[in-house]
């Protein structure tokens, strides 16, 4: 999918509210809409300030969040919406009420929901049947808005996303799934996933990418690090224990150790002066990544974090039915 330029301050069209739950739900033209909105906000972040005035948005975060929760609050208020935040244990789902019943009640008070849980995507689908403008801010399966932030950071650095070469190291988790599902829709992108055996991308994600990738885009899967790898434009990793939760098993660290992004590993994949490092944060210094790599001039982590705000704004606008003309 090639992405046309978006002029700053474009007028927006509006249709009906719709959920943003998984990149697998979206045909290529709707990906184009979301990424177009993101580019609009990059070029003119204040152009649509107040456009959601009168809207009421719930931020339902049942697990910890720093960047995603704060960026969605900021994006909602910048766009003019009123936002209420629900933390862990503050809704009756913790006492046995179903997600569907919760959504039915919340639809009486709210126009949109931003949801992060450690449960399945089906919980959010149950909410979205009653509150259509429901956004997945992270589920077990996928982290769709993180991939939008990553896309924005890459375009900011390289000028375009077409033809980029990305190497991901570690578990094929929800961030990895979203990265694969979004970036494989862009022309010519090469995605190399280096994951310990048994910790790779889910089969359904692989199958979707193989069936829906853009022209020239392709996915390659590895369970070991080659001595002389193909160079890449971006080296990406994520936390080995998502949200700090223990795996509860022994021996997994030794399986992950070869995939740690050390200075030496980064150098093996890098083209001097071009290759960048990426991490969705939070990071465990000297865990999945060496501290000097995280802090290096070639690290894009702060740009990714800043574009969480871009992604949140684009997701909110899209979920409320907006698109660039």
UniProtKB/TrEMBL annotation:
SUPFAM superfamilies: Aspartate/ornithine carbamoyltransferase (SSF53671). Keywords: Transferase. InterPro entries: Asp/Orn_carbamoyltranf_P-bd (IPR006132), Asp/Orn_carbamoylTrfase (IPR006130), Asp/Orn_carbamoylTrfase_sf (IPR036901), Asp_carbamoyltransf_Asp/Orn-bd (IPR006131), Orn/put_carbamltrans (IPR002292). The keyword Transferase applies. Residues 1-20 are annotated as: Disordered. The keyword tRNA-binding does not apply. Residues 162-318 form the Aspartate/ornithine carbamoyltransferase Asp/Orn-binding domain. Residues 19-155 form the Aspartate/ornithine carbamoyltransferase carbamoyl-P binding domain. Pfam families: OTCace (PF00185), OTCace_N (PF02729). Belongs to the aspartate/ornithine carbamoyltransferase superfamily. This is Ornithine carbamoyltransferase. It comes from Actinomadura yumaensis.
């Amino acid at each position: 999918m090639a992405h046309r330029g978006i002029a700053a301050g474009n007028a927006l069209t509006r249709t009906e509210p719709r959920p943003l739950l998984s990149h697998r739900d979206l045909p290529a033209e709707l990906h184009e809409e979301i990424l177009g909105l993101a580019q609009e906000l990059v070029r003119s972040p204040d152009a649509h300030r107040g456009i959601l005035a009168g809207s009421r948005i719930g931020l339902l975060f049942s697990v910890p969040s720093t960047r995603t929760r704060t960026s969605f609050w900021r994006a909602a208020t910048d766009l003019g919406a009123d936002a209420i935040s629900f933390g862990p244990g503050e809704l009756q789902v913790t006492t046995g009420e179903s997600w569907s019943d919760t959504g039915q009640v919340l639809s009486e008070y709210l126009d949109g929901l931003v949801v992060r849980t450690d449960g399945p995507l089906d919980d959010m689908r149950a909410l979205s049947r009653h509150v259509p403008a429901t956004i997945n801010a992270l589920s077990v399966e996928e982290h769709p808005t993180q991939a939008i932030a990553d896309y924005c950071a890459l375009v900011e650095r390289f000028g375009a996303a077409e033809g980029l070469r990305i190497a991901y190291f570690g578990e094929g988790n929800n961030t990895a799934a979203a990265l694969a599902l979004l970036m494989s829709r862009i022309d010519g992108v090469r995605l190399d996933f280096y994951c310990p055996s048994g910790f790779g991308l889910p089969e359904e994600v692989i199958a979707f990418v193989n069936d829906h990738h853009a022209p020239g885009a392709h996915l390659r899967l590895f369970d070991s690090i080659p001595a002389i790898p193909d160079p890449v434009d971006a080296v990406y990793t994520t936390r080995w224990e998502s949200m700090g939760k223990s795996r509860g098993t022994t021996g997994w660290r030794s399986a992950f150790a070869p995939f740690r992004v050390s200075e030496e590993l980064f150098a093996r994949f890098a083209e001097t002066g071009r290759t960048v490092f990426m991490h969705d944060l939070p990071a465990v210094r000297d865990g999945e990544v060496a501290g000097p790599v995280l802090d290096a001039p070639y690290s894009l982590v702060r740009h990714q974090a800043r574009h969480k705000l871009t992604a949140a704004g684009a997701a909110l606008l899209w979920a409320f039915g907006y698109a660039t003309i």
